[in-house]
Amino acid sequence: MKRLTITTLLAVAILSGCSSTEEVVPDVPPAELYVTAQQALQSGSWTTAIERLETLDSRYPFGAYSEQVQLDLIYAYYKNDDLALGEATIARFNRLNPAHEKSDWVLYMRGLTQMAQDRSFMHDIFSIDRHDRDPEPARKAFRDFKRLLDRYPNSQYAADAKARMIFIKNRLADYDLATVDFYIRREAWIAAINRSQQIQKLYPDTQAARKSLPLMLTAYEKLGLQEPIENTKKLIALNPVN
């Protein structure tokens, strides 16, 4: 029954993605088209908003609404999980508007877009915690949020960016911890020690750093290194796992 439920769910998701037909956007003045795009954005009708905004962007690339259309597309693409299109639009906007007054928001949205790429449809549907997957999008998001804090410390998005950096830091530490566990199971003791030390250096205030200590102790014990064994036992006593 569970297999049937999952199969049915996936089939519905695939069919719903394939069943939509592209709507022909009427040839109306840009102001009217922009109003309908804004109405779609405000109602959360992301697909409709994207259709209207893309039409504006293609028909009037240098019109009065061009900059705002691109900003709206960045947001709509993010909300609609069109992350590659969002990233491309951000790159285009930055290239054309290197000193725009909303550059902090664009940088913030790039971080959000990168962060969203660190998950997948399957993980969301089944609430799967795959902290061992490639964290490169998370690293990029971390860099963007850090860049936001460095460049625009007074931005209204700074506080949220800082909170997200804490979340991402734990995500990256958990990835490294999964790697340590992999090395331990493969009896790659030196590699396990090196990666554990990396966690403790880069992410000292995370649970992963504390959890890496017993794994590092195991590696030292397997290698028969008495002094590191004693030092690691002291660190474990000072840094218990909560």
UniProtKB/TrEMBL annotation:
Any one annotated GO CC term = Bam protein complex
Functional note = Part of the outer membrane protein assembly complex, which is involved in assembly and insertion of beta-barrel proteins into the outer membrane.
What are the record keywords, sorted?
Answer: Cell outer membrane, Lipoprotein, Membrane, Palmitate, Signal
PANTHER family assigned = OUTER MEMBRANE PROTEIN ASSEMBLY FACTOR BAMD, SOLUBLE LYTIC MUREIN TRANSGLYCOSYLASE-RELATED
Give the InterPro entries listed for this entry.
BamD, TPR-like_helical_dom_sf
Organism name: Photobacterium profundum (strain SS9)
Which protein is depicted?
Outer membrane protein assembly factor BamD
SUPFAM superfamilies reported for this sequence: TPR-like
Family in the record:
Belongs to the BamD family.
Q: How does it sit in the membrane?
A: Lipid-anchor
Assembly:
Part of the Bam complex.
- Gene Ontology biological process terms from the UniProt entry: Gram-negative-bacterium-type cell outer membrane assembly; protein insertion into membrane
Cleavable signal peptide: 1-21
Q: Does the keyword Lipoprotein apply?
A: yes
Q: Does the keyword Membrane apply?
A: yes
Quote the subcellular location field of this record.
Answer: Cell outer membrane
> Where does the protein principally reside?
membrane
